[in-house]
From TrEMBL:
InterPro entries per the UniProt record, alphabetical: AB_hydrolase_1, AB_hydrolase_fold
Domain AB hydrolase-1: 46-220
Gene3D superfamilies per the UniProt record, alphabetical: alpha/beta hydrolase
SUPFAM superfamilies referenced in this protein's UniProt entry, alphabetically: alpha/beta-Hydrolases (SSF53474)
Pfam families reported for this sequence: Abhydrolase_6
Organism the protein comes from: Sistotremastrum niveocremeum HHB9708
Annotated protein name in UniProt: AB hydrolase-1 domain-containing protein
Length: 344
């Protein structure tokens, strides 16, 4: 790997009722002279927020590419000094860390805004002594991590971001199509297994299950290590850290949320550049509500790029994921250049 990784835990209880875990990635390769001469405004810190059922390590293949292949593209790209990946408290090893508190506060239900609260607590909590709000932050949210972004940016005192990259969220006013999407999500949750006799059996299942088999081999290996962190009380089986009950509750609360779309309009209207990447071949039902991302109460994102590899593109095509991120970052530095900006 091209990076060093450190894991930090921010514990701000009781002001926020869960401990929040995050990884900090820094490049192993020293900066060359051209990069070291760049001004301070060219150095940035990336913040990743993952999708439902993912975990903080799921971006590592993309992070590896960002540090090795995109550190400087002819002076167009900013220098990425570090990358942070913040884990939702009921996912991955965070679910184990917070198990007792989850039983008290959210035994059966889970609100999407919890991830916004957790990310805010982590960013404000000086993990490892790092004062993140004082850095040039670019925050990247995928799916659920993008859905809750309008809420995160409204938390007081506000955290200033240099740019925001929204990766294929589904944000729409409540409508018939959203109710249909909820049914598809819930059906998918019920259809997959969540317990196996061993990690070996779980890894083999990932190669067969229709949704997960298209992920890269590296991502499947990371998933087995990151989302199957502990033993099940009965018989030593391994179980998904993110429960099906919480997964279904997350989907239902996001579909029922009538305020997220208004908050998205406020985000588009702000002075912060907001870059959208969207699935160019979505599920037909999703396609019917996708237009609400491109024009939200009269406001539009700063740029919009199509994804060729589907909604879970970070898991199926990390190369495309890294390219989309760097294109958005280069747009910030060269807004008048011929960077492809596609719209519906």
């Amino acid at each position: 790997m091209s990076w060093h990784c450190e894991t930090y835990v921010v514990d701000s209880r009781p002001s926020y009722h869960y401990r929040v875990m995050g990884n900090r990635y820094t490049p192993k390769i020293p900066r060359d002279n051209s990069q070291s001469r760049l001004g301070k405004d060219k150095h940035i810190s990336l913040i990743f927020l993952h999708a439902t059922s993912m975990f903080k390590e799921c971006f590592e293949p993309v992070i590896d590419l960002l540090f090795t292949g995109y550190t400087s593209r002819s002076g167009k790209s900013p220098v990425i000094d570090e990358v942070w990946s913040i884990e939702c408290p009921n996912h991955g090893y965070s679910a184990v860390l917070n198990a007792d508190d989850i039983r008290i506060h959210n035994a059966e239900t889970w609100q999407t805004h919890e991830y916004a609260d957790a990310a805010y607590a982590f960013l404000r909590g000086r993990p490892g002594g790092h004062d993140l709000p004082k850095k040039n932050l670019v925050i990247i949210g995928h799916s659920m991590g993008a859905f809750m972004m309008p809420y995160l940016t409204q938390r007081e005192p506000k955290i200033e971001f240099d740019a925001i990259i929204l990766c294929d969220p589904i944000i729409s006013p409540r409508c018939r199509e959203m109710d249909m999407i909820e049914k598809v999500w819930v059906k998918s949750t019920f259809s997959h297994r969540d317990t196996w006799t061993s990690r070996v059996e779980a890894r083999e299942y990932l190669d067969r299950y229709k949704v997960w088999k298209i992920w890269t081999s590296d991502i499947k290996d990371l998933f087995v290590g990151g989302e199957l962190p502990d033993s099940h009380p009965l018989g030593g089986a391994v179980k998904l850290a993110f429960s099906k009950e919480h997964e279904i509750s997350t989907y239902r609360t996001s579909v029922a949320d009538d305020t997220a779309h208004n908050e998205l309009a406020s985000l588009y209207a702000s002075n912060t550049p907001v870059h959208l990447v969207y699935d160019m071949n979505p599920h037909p039902i999703v396609g019917k509500v996708q237009a609400t991302l491109h024009r939200c109460h009269g406001f539009e994102p700063t740029s919009a790029q199509p994804i060729r590899s589907g909604h879970m593109f970070f898991q199926t095509n990390p190369i495309e994921g890294a390219e989309l991120i760097m294109t958005a970052l280069e747009y910030e530095r060269n807004p008048h250049n011929d960077i492809t900006v596609a719209r519906l």
